[in-house]
Amino acid sequence: MPKISVIVPVYNVEQYLSQCLDSIINQTFRDVEIICINDGSTDNSSKILEEYARKDSRIKVLTQENQGASIARNRGLDFAKGEWICFVDSDDITHPQMLEVVYNKAISNDVDFVQYKYKEFKTNDVKCNIMNANDVKGKVYNNSVLVSCKKQKYQNTFGPVGKLIKKSIIGKIRFIPHLQFEDYPFVYEVLSKKPKGIYLDAELYFYRIREVSLSHIKADPQQIKDYHTGINHILNIYEKPELIKEKKFLIRDFLPIILKHQLGRCRRADEVTKSLMFAEFSKELRDLDNKGLLSWRGHKLSRYLTYKKLIKENRNA
Fold first, then answer.
1. How wide is the angle at C-alpha 97 spanned by C-alphas 92 and 98, nearest 5°?
2. Which end of the chain is more exposed for a tag (fewer CB within 10 A), N or C?
């Protein structure tokens, strides 16, 4: 049984896939399985995966019709044999010591959850400085959800990449199928288990910025609906009596960040789509307000007033 299962969903990334896979197979930590889920790619990604699987027996290739990252990651989780789970996106790059550092920190600190920093890049020229793993600083918390997005102190809180998670903590938790921005419902459901975590002050993951990424997809009202679905999913989980303190944290520190993202997405939409986006966003805000979840705490005052104005203007929508 490998120590770590690295799960890589793959869809039409022939331009970047080899660099990503090279960064994983050349890790200084070798006791891994690399699960690549070919999500119905129509370019040369499948051929690249086959070539790498022939070269390295640790690479397992699963193939499916195009169903999206959620189902691809879920299939990887179902297949994984490792004690720990690490997600990598197929257009990104990992530091060669990433797995060595995060695994050793997890074991030496007896934690269930490791989070580390990432660095954005646009070209293929990524420089990785060799580090002494013992010099990497980290802070341990007994309840990771309570520090997960406080003042956005730690990067990439909402996404599954940039983390090492004990498989037993994930258990039967899975990504919501066919949902845009499916990342944060999964992460915060994992955090609802109150895992002991360590947050490392080290850039170990390199996140590629490219225009065709999901965050740059043309605005659509369905995006707001999916945000709403994700928020409701999380809040329902945190309704449990033993998660009262954590739910208060989510209302004060998590919701303001998610609503800010949605407001920005609405404002950036083209004129034809903008009114539809704001109408859908207003429904979400009204739902949160009716549930007593839209508190002024945690929001920038101008944004909070904007939310209340949108609710008022679209009350009968």
1. 50
2. N
Query: Who has greater pLDDT, 180 or 72?
Result: 72
pLDDT tens digits, one per residue of 226-273: 999 999 999 999 999 999 999 998 998 889 989 999 999 999 999 889
Q: Rounded to whole angstroms, how far apart are CA atoms 204 and 192? A: 25
Going by C-alpha positions, the residue among 162, 102, 167 that lies closest to residue 138 is 102
Q: Which of 53, 99, 58 is nearest to 80 (CA)?
A: 58
193: nearest Cα among 253, 243, 154, 153:
243
CA angle 6, 171, 103 (to 5 degrees): 40
What Cα–Cα distance (Å) separates residue 138 from each residue in 29, 114, 117, 162? Answer: 19, 9, 11, 14
Q: State mean pLDDT over 134-154.
A: 75
Question: How high is the pLDDT of residue 154?
Answer: 44
141: helix, strand or coil? strand
How does strand 197-208 pair with strand 93-94?
Answer: antiparallel
How many Cβ atoms sit within 10 Å of the Cβ of residue 210? Answer: 12
| Beta strands in 122-264, from DSSP E residues, in sequence order | 138-141, 163-166, 197-208
Is the pTM above the cut of 0.70? yes
The helices-and-strands tally (H runs, E runs) of the chain is: 11, 9
